[in-house]
């Protein structure tokens, strides 16, 4: 990770106000990084905070999957995702897939205000950081030979 991080900002509907309040408080710090967000969340943050934010589509329409794709491509370094654990989401499988990719690629993820405060206030936020991604050791390098019945 470079000194300037690429941060994805995501919030479920019931958490958008909380993310906006958190982002407003941390606006100066966020403005020093590259920001990405899913649909409505990105629109709200860009409008309210006058920040440049690259936007994906809404989460239920594939935005969470777009963030996951950017993790795999090495674009997104960091996720702030205020998710609502008490509300069933129509795209729960996409959320789970995004979190799986984040763990697989060793991406820091904050899922609430406290974890976001701890991560963003880390002294590592303003430094280069060598993130270790060891996918090869956790994935079989050779598939078992396929046996076809004659």
TrEMBL record:
Record carries keyword Lyase: yes
A molecular function GO annotation: methylglyoxal synthase activity
Keywords assigned by UniProt, alphabetized: Lyase
Annotated GO CC locations: cytosol
GO biological process: methylglyoxal biosynthetic process
Protein source organism: Anaerosporomusa subterranea
CDD domains found in the cross-reference section: MGS
Highest taxon of source: Bacteria
Active site: 64 (proton donor/acceptor)
Record has Phosphoprotein as a keyword: no
Reaction catalysed by this enzyme: dihydroxyacetone phosphate = methylglyoxal + phosphate
Gene that encodes the chain: mgsA
Name listed for the protein in its UniProt record: Methylglyoxal synthase
SMART domains for the chain: MGS (SM00851)
NCBIfam families according to UniProt: MGSA, PRK05234.1
Functional description taken from the UniProt entry: Catalyzes the formation of methylglyoxal from dihydroxyacetone phosphate.
Pfam families in the record: MGS
Residues of the MGS-like domain: 1-150
HAMAP family: Methylglyoxal_synth
UniProt-listed Enzyme Commission number(s): 4.2.3.3
EC primary class: lyase
Residue runs in coiled coils: none
Positions annotated to bind substrate: 12, 16, 38-41, 58-59, 91
Family indicated by similarity: Belongs to the methylglyoxal synthase family.
């Amino acid at each position: 990770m470079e000194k300037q991080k690429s941060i994805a900002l995501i919030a479920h509907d019931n958490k958008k106000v909380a993310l906006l309040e958190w982002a407003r408080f941390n606006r100066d710090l966020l403005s020093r990084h590259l920001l990405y967000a899913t649909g409505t969340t990105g629109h709200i943050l860009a409008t309210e905070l006058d920040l440049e934010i690259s936007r994906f589509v809404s989460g239920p329409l594939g935005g969470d999957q777009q963030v996951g794709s950017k993790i795999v491509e090495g674009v997104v370094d960091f996720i702030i995702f205020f998710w609502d654990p008490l509300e069933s989401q129509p795209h729960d499988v996409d959320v789970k897939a995004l979190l799986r990719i984040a763990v697989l690629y060793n991406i820091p993820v904050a899922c609430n205000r406290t974890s976001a405060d701890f991560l963003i206030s880390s002294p590592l936020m303003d430094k280069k950081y060598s993130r270790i991604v060891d996918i090869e050791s956790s994935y079989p390098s050779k598939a078992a030979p396929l046996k076809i019945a004659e």
